[in-house]
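Running log. JK asked me to keep both predictions on one page so they can be read side by side. First protein, sequence followed by its tokens:
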Amino acid sequence: YNIVGNVFAEINFLRNFSFRTSIGLSNYNTMYQTFSGAQAENAEANSKVNSLSVNASMSRTLTFSNTLNYQKDFGKHKLDFLIGTETVQASSRSLSASSDDYFTVNKNYLLLQNGAERYPGSSGRGKTALLSYFGRFDYNYNDRYLFGTTIRRDGSSYFGPNKRFGTFPSFSVGWRVSQEDFMRGISWVNDLKIRVSYGVLGSQNNVAVLNQFSTYGSSIYYAAYDMSGTSNSVDVGMYKNRIGNSATGWEEDVVRNLGIDIVLLNNSLDFQIDLYKKSINGLLLTEPLPSVIGALVSSPTVNIGDIQNTGIDLSAKYRFNIGNFRNSINMNFTHYKNEIIDLPDPGYFGGSSRNEEGYPTGMFYGYKITGIFNSQEEIDDAPTQDAAQPGRFRYEDYNKDGIITSDDRQFLASPHPDFIYGIILNTEYKGFDLSAQFYGVQGNTIYNQTRMSTDFFQSNITANKSRKLLNAWTPENTNTTVPKIENVQSFSTTTSFNSYALEDGSYFRLKTVTLGYSFNTKSPFMQRLMLSNLRIYTQASNLFTITKYSGLDPDIASGSPESFGIDVATYPTNEPKVTFGVTLTY
């Protein structure tokens, strides 16, 4: 169950002043247990007969805010000034335990103590806090010249004592050109405004609660030692499971924006254009660690570099009538360029998703496949390549030195799209309304990781295989892009990241079609039921998707920066569905 509530008090005094205080609470509690019976499939890879896990957790968030506001109008001038503070405290507790090998699956006997093999339980508790001071000032002269500025100072318990607080200012200026005297004779321009803004935003995303601390764990599996000199007993010790970094601080997103809003032709045509530049200083990412440290240690999140996005957003809306039909067309277009500006030495990090100065984030990096070896003669004439065999991939000798090494890896493709666009069509006739929403992404690349399981047999995954294997390479079938079927791994197939599973992720989708009818509020039917609004509608979603992508859904979640553009069998959200609804207001 989840309880959410808020209580506030507000007082107005001295004509132009108002003070508001509020307390908000969110309290969440859950308890659940999971029983896993004996597996019929993949039983050889599972040693457990059955298992039971019991979990309980509680979390609470308390928000306390206070603001003082001053508003004053005199003549053509309008002033709005606000200062305030806010604190957000979150606490949590958890408890979990599990047991294996139950003699029965009767739910009345599924208790932790009835399992033949019982594991030590675990518990956890946590607490975080955020403290903010902020102020805002807005000025408006005759609805023609607009100015606003905001400043925040935020402190977070996610960061160490020396980097806990950050200061983030912003300002904006607007000029409503259409209100000027020289625009009065231009009747086809109904409104024209120019906007300029600059702001610094602080982010603590991608930072673990314990990021500033080095922590240790105890486990009989990972830290057991024979301290007595005999093999009959062991003592459980400690091992390092997290490397802390108290120097990690706020990520700063610096956003510059120039915008134009224009309304034309008797308010029938709207345009909005925004040019922006977003610089991220002190990007929060997990620090790469050398492999000698081991797999049990979590790496800290650090301020690892600076990146930059520059782009343009365009939107337009056209309204027109045909007889009794009221119609509108909405269109939007987005294009951006992403670039890494600065990284610490050696100027890059990452493996198959590489981040390097001068390039976009998350670039796919590896060996480019130029074909498949068809004979030993082709192998002998080609640059030296490890594990080269007929039926295996042939890689490009990128540096032209006659041997395929790690130096021949190259940037293969980008997960970032060239542009994103959308179209919304609307029409209304009397009480009926019909709308269709289209959405498209163009020019991005997806790494379809699922194909590494479905197109090869050398993994231990026993899932179904792809029909592409029916066209796998054989000495008699050489006109193919699918390598030969084998149950071993090699550098020339799957142990090195290559371009085999990279696909065009562009798509165009009809997201929704909605048909509705709104009853006339003055009709006797509505009056009799005492309704002020009654609308019935049906909506169909994901009616079609045009794409060359072979996966289940090209609209994959972006995920973390390290997995951007990688499809790891993401559950699809493009299933067609139909919804019926009624909206009414008494």
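And the second, directly underneath as requested:
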Amino acid sequence: MSQPSPQAEPTLPGRVYLVGAGPGDPGLLTLRGAECLRAADLVLYDGLVNPMLLRHSHASAERTCRAEGPTGRQIRQEEINQRLVEAAREGKTVVRLKGGDPFIFGRGSEEAAALRAAGIPFEVVPGITAATAAAVYTGISLTHRDHASAVAFITGHEDPAKPSSALDYHSLAHFPGTLVFYMGLHRLESIASSLIAAGKPADTPACVVCRATQPVQQTVTGTLGEIHQLAKTAGLHPPSLVIVGDCVQVRDRAHWFEDRPLFGKVIGITRPEDQADDAAHRSFELGALPVMLPMIEIAPPDDWSDVDAMLNRLEEFDWIVWTSANGVRGLLDRLWHNGGDIRRLSRAKLACIGPATAKVLEQYSLRADVIPTEFRAEALAAALAPKVSGQKVLWARASRGRDILPQILTQAGANLEQVVVYQNRDVTSFPEAERIRLERGDLDWIGLSSPSIARSLAKLITPVARQLVGTRTKLASISPVTTAAAAEVGLPIAAEATTYTWEGLFQAMIDAD
């Protein structure tokens, strides 16, 4: 008699987090939102969400949208609800990443209701809603002791299935405070005329903000009677908000975002994909929009045997030299992997090419003994030359690079050994979206942070895009060596950093503009 097969244990449902992503600036995501993204197995995100927020997560990500679009069928709200339920029933931790705040004109409550009905555990994480962010980033105080003691958030795009508008324009026209219309650009003429017809003075200050909190933010101000034509002339487009009220007057005294030195610029960040965050965040702080254009990839050696053999006699060396942050990580992470730790370096003195490399060294609780005043190989070699005669020096390096350092140190009498702790490989192509950006001339600057990156750009860039380099798209070089490499491959440099860091690159762009 056959025995019944054992029943599989039922999968416990996962959890869904409805997370407000904020209005566009990735720095406005809450700490709780970032925690949820780090824990996620799946992220379903709106089209208005800044894709840079996905860098907080290693989960698979799917973009959602609730309507038919020019590129074909896109996901409807009911399908999103079902996707959330199905993924949670598979035991996944799911983040539903929504622009702004999930419950302010965001349909998050509908998703929460669907999860509740399906018995799926969920949590709602508030986000900074577009109205408050747009006002602050344009210098408008929605409430002000001299101008407004109340603020109203109003949809400018009601459910098309409604038989008539639910908005009472007479009440809105006489509201004692500031009016903020979400998604109202396409109906701006109707909104303005309806308010005026209901008694709102035509000379009431008004403002339209497009792509709020982003480096491409556009702001138009005027009176309620003229704001529609002003927005049309400026060519504004969604996503946008309309702000109406006397508080708009304070903008001239309190605006700050548009004053950032690189505001509105689009900058290509050419660092490896997994090491671009610092440069991207800094570009946001300076008012620029970063576009990821990795020209090289960083990979471990194909064979660790040479590194492991060297680590077995690490105590022999008097000096260990690093010319990149990747070299620091490659050597010290492998040391840890093999069961060692920083005590094995106690005999050696340490040298770094610059403060960025030394900062990574500090993450391992190590302090550099030598950092040159100029952050290049020649300066590092010159600083070490008087110290290394007759001493054993280890250079933890990339698979390729300049040979000036070993030449100078060997001439100075050092017993130099080199070990490759990471590979520096060229990227073979741009993603399609970035290629199109380059060929349209959408980038204002591209930062070249090494000679190999300059050479990679020359190989990857299409003839169409190359015609725009030097005119529409300018190139900034991190050092004279990089400038020389760019010249060899026919790339014109418009600005050169005097400090050989990404901060120096950004300053060169500022000075050139």
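Observation for JK regarding the second prediction: The longest strand covers residues 415-426.
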